[in-house]
Amino acid sequence: MEICRGSRCLKVELIAYSLPKEGDVDKLVAESGAISHAPEFRELDEKRVRHLIELLRKLGHESVFEHACFTFRVEGISRVCTHQLVRHRLASYTQQSQRYVKLKNPKFIVPEAIFGSQFEEEYMELLEKASELYRRMVEGGIRKEDARFILPQGVETKIIITMNGRELRHFFSLRCEKDAQWEIRNLAKAMLKQAYEVAPILFEDLYKKYIENYP
Ligand SMILES: Cc1cc2nc3c(=O)[nH]c(=O)nc-3n(C[C@H](O)[C@H](O)[C@H](O)COP(=O)(O)OP(=O)(O)OC[C@H]3O[C@@H](n4cnc5c(N)ncnc54)[C@H](O)[C@@H]3O)c2cc1C
What we know:
Elements: E1 2-5, E2 11-17, H1 25-34, H2 46-59, E3 69-78, H3 79-85, E4 91-95, E5 107-110, H4 120-139, H5 144-147, E6 156-164, H6 165-175, H7 182-198, H8 204-212
Parallel strand pairs: 1-5
Antiparallel strand pairs: 2-3, 3-6, 4-6
The structure holds flavin-adenine dinucleotide.
Flavin-adenine dinucleotide binds at residues 87-90, 167, 170, 174-175, 179-180.
């Protein structure tokens, strides 16, 4: 068994995103939006791109942001976290299966709060016991899909997430907030940092709020 303390094992990688033939994600979004008020499609310079995206945000004309998609590869999170994540319905997910993948050496995400508490020893013993029983059950002929019931929710998982720009903004506005649970908040903030790198205008307001000016 392996232990991951808090989000120390969290790995998030933006592996794909929508790029127009020329330009970047911001340009794709702004030029898509521009057609609603123009007789022809047209190219926008950087200043107009910024102006238009800011205007779309202000007016709440966010369907335009759906033209850009972002795909993230995530590992080092618990099933507790992915259970919250997949409540966001306007997204696509592919998650590592516990039916098909035998967890040879299960990893568990353990909240920081457990370390140094009076429960730490007992907590670790239970994880060890659950892992050991899981291993013996699978080796003893119990199907993985049944043996997995013994695994605690903190077990580590891997998932691919695809969201469009509108849903991603909505996800960040809920899950980067202080009242979001720490693990999904850490995930959302890691995703926001990477989304901002490729679409700095589209995510600028959220980046400032949750990353730059976060208390
Ligand atoms: C701090 C926090 C605490 C939470 N606590 C709980 C809890 O205790 N129990 C619990 O069950 N959940 C809880 N949730 C989950 C929450 O209720 C939502 O399920 C989750 O945040 C997904 O957000 P969303 O509904 O906006 O969905 P998304 O799937 O992200 O949808 C985006 C938007 O699309 C629209 N939309 C999507 N589907 C529909 C639909 N079928 N009909 C109409 N409009 C739709 C809505 O405008 C929605 O806001 C919590 C979430 C947060 C952030």
